[in-house]
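Annotated sample (chain length 147).
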Amino acid sequence: MDFLMKYISGTYRCAGSFRASRLDMEGLGSCQHVYIAQICQNPGISQEGLAKRICVNKSTVTRQLGALEQNGFVLRHPDPGDRRILRVYPTEKAKLAYPRVMELRADWNRLLLEDFTPEERGALLHMLERIWRRAVRVTEGETAEKD
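Output written by the structure step:
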């Protein structure tokens, strides 16, 4: 199934190009849209929680949040109950960027799926969700569970 990753990664790279050409916010990279979306939807999320939610390692989250913080999109504060935990909050700049990020994501989905019937869209999304859930389980070492 070599084609699976070829098509998934190719689509992902095209999505990055699409966002980069349309994301007109100074200091916001095309791969950072997912951070803006998650932080605006979950203000105060921990860095570790964010890493789990978007399926990337903690060092990648730390690096991306550093850039977002430097560019004025997020603030990080220690958790009052456990100072080892950093909580991430959106700034006004992130809150202003959020609708544009969500609009670009919706535009991309609409453009990719416009030739599909509603039934085909539903089936495709269901299958992709199954693949994603399986991928999460495999990376967590839990392959015995059924999809």
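Annotation: The radius of gyration is 17 Å.
Annotation: The beta strands are 45-46, 74-78, 86-90.
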